[in-house]
Amino acid sequence: MKESTTQKVALITGVTGQDGAYLAEFLLKKGYLVHGLKRRSSLFNTDRIDHLYQDPHLDNRNFVLHYGDLTDSTNLIRVIQETQPDEIYNLAAQSHVKVSFDTPEYTANADGIGTLRILEAVRLLGLIEKTRIYQASTSELYGLVQAVPQSETTPFYPRSPYAVAKMYGYWITVNYREAYKMYACNGILFNHESPVRGETFVTRKITRAVAKIALGLQSKLFLGNLSAQRDWGHAKDYVEAMWLILQQNTPEDFVIATGVTTTVRDFVRLSFAELGVTVEFSGKDEQEKGVVIDRDDERLKELGIDPEGIKLGQTVVKVDSRYYRPTEVDLLIGDPTKAQTQLNWIPKYDLQMLVSEMVQSDLHLMRKEQYLKGGGFETLNYFE
Ligand code: NDP
Ligand code: GDR
Q1: Is the model's pLDDT at 331 over the cut of 80?
Q2: Is the distance from the beta carbon of residue 255 to the nearest atom of ligand 1 less than 6 Å?
Q3: For a tag on the chain, would you pick the N or C end, based on fewer CB atoms within 10 A?
């Protein structure tokens, strides 16, 4: 392991997730020794960080993975003791809002108490002076709309077991900062996406489906609440903000957002538009559907897509109430003024750039699937 007196050491929980992967890459570029906590799974779960992997037999590694789980305090204490981090980024979480209604107790344990376990480990190990802690807080804390745009002073009203668990994580971080003078901060991050966003979050679900529909691998996309409004940014910009939050003279909490909100419906429109396909919506609630009303054949051909595969009048989006949530968060729009002025945080991506990158990336991925299918390489069934 490459460690010198000047090299900073970071520990990232949730390193296999979307943000963990971007943050690991970002910190490695800054010269950090990066430790990542990864949980054991029955299949490889390191796709997003495989490009950063270093052979464990090398002795000058600067990226090291450790098995661990936020529900196991003994292992967290051991990993923190062994790695002696200058900075801990607590990104691990059961992060799916809808799934939290199905697994509320687990979500509370991992997302709420898990945060406490990290803070307590640092305190018990006597690392208060040395270790700075970033807690992955969320715009879901705002929940039922109290005021817009939402800032550091807007009251919380969580609307899911996920948000309630994260509310505990938020306040326990504030409490440890105040009680023990720890450098512990919340980043209240609004939705941020990327080509490696989990496939069941709405943006990625849309961009994957748009790519598949264009290539004739899928006929339509089923979605839930099309009217939900989110403030979507790019994960690459947001991990930089996490790092900036830990580089200040005093520990504080920050909202990280773009300040622009968009409906799920418009995200669908923008995604199809990236390929030259115009989709319009009609109908209400569960009867609403999205239909192709125009097609730019030149654009499609330029992208290597057969225009005849997409028919005018084709229904490409339908609503399925199974994706509705028992309690929904209707409108999120963040006010990033504090981050802009105090952290000098300036995002490089806007929504159009984000959508374009995600759709093009999924088109590339789905094309691979199409070639494999065309070549007769169907998925093997080992259980026949
Ligand atoms: P992901 O779901 O992509 O990643 C979550 C990570 O946590 C994965 O590495 C996952 O492991 C790991 N994990 C889950 N449960 C445990 C556990 N019990 N112990 C250890 N590791 C665990 O989330 P994102 O990268 O999108 O988000 C990062 C963090 O930021 C999360 O805490 C999320 O709640 C929060 N957040 C995210 C926002 C967003 O828009 N992306 C906005 C605001 C906050 P595995 O790969 O094995 O599943
Ligand atoms: P969110 O993200 O709940 O905001 O949490 P998600 O992409 O899951 O939902 C955004 C909005 O889209 C609506 N929606 C659908 N959502 C999903 N997943 N699938 C669908 O088919 C669908 N149809 C409509 C949802 O109802 C919702 O209103 C994300 C996570 O990353 C959290 O961890 C993070 O804290 C917040 O963002 C900020």
Answers
A1: yes
A2: no
A3: C
Pairing type for strands 33-38 and 63-67 reads parallel
Give yes or no: 5 in active site.
Answer: no
Does 2.70.98.70 match the CATH number of domain 202-229+263-326+350-373?
no
Locate the domains of the chain by residue range: 9-194+232-260, 202-229+263-326+350-373
pLDDT in tens, 86-137: 999 999 999 999 999 999 999 999 999 999 999 999 999 999 999 999 999 9
Tell me whether domains 9-194+232-260 and 202-229+263-326+350-373 share a fold: no
Just give the CATH number of 9-194+232-260. Answer: 3.40.50.720
CA–CA separation, 86 and 274 (whole Å): 42
Q: Amino acid letter at 382?
A: Y
**Nearest CA-CA partner of 249 in 312, 301, 323, 183:** 183
Angstrom distance (rounded) from CA 132 to CA 8: 12
**Which ligand has the minimum distance to the alpha carbon of residue 329?**
2
Contact by Cβ (8 Å): 228, 268: no
Query: For the chain, how many residues are written?
Result: 384
**Does any ligand 1 atom lie closer than 6 A to the CB of residue 72?**
no
